[in-house]
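Title: Prediction job returns without error message
Component: structure pipeline
Severity: low
Priority: P3
Assignee: unassigned

Description:
Job completed but the reporter wants confirmation the result is attached to the right record. Sequence as submitted:
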Amino acid sequence: MDSNSQSANTEELPSQRLADVVGTAIAMLTLTLPMFVIGHYSSSSFQGNRQPLTYNLQTTDNDTELIKSEISSTDKMNQHASSLSKEENYNSGN
């Protein structure tokens, strides 16, 4: 073994050293930053300021009639499709 080649392997180039430092910094941020962000936004003071959601739903007679009409037409379409399916099955059996 040549002693010069061994010493060249143990020394790191400055760019490799910088890449190691940058990589370590990115890894540490990736592991720690989410925990700090979650801790910050899930604190008790944040939840105390939250307003309850309420919705005022009002139906009118027109809405009720429209819904009944839609249900009726859907039922009629389902019955028609069912009868067509039964006829098709009957005709394919013969």
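Comment from assignee: result matches the submitted record. The mean pLDDT is 77.
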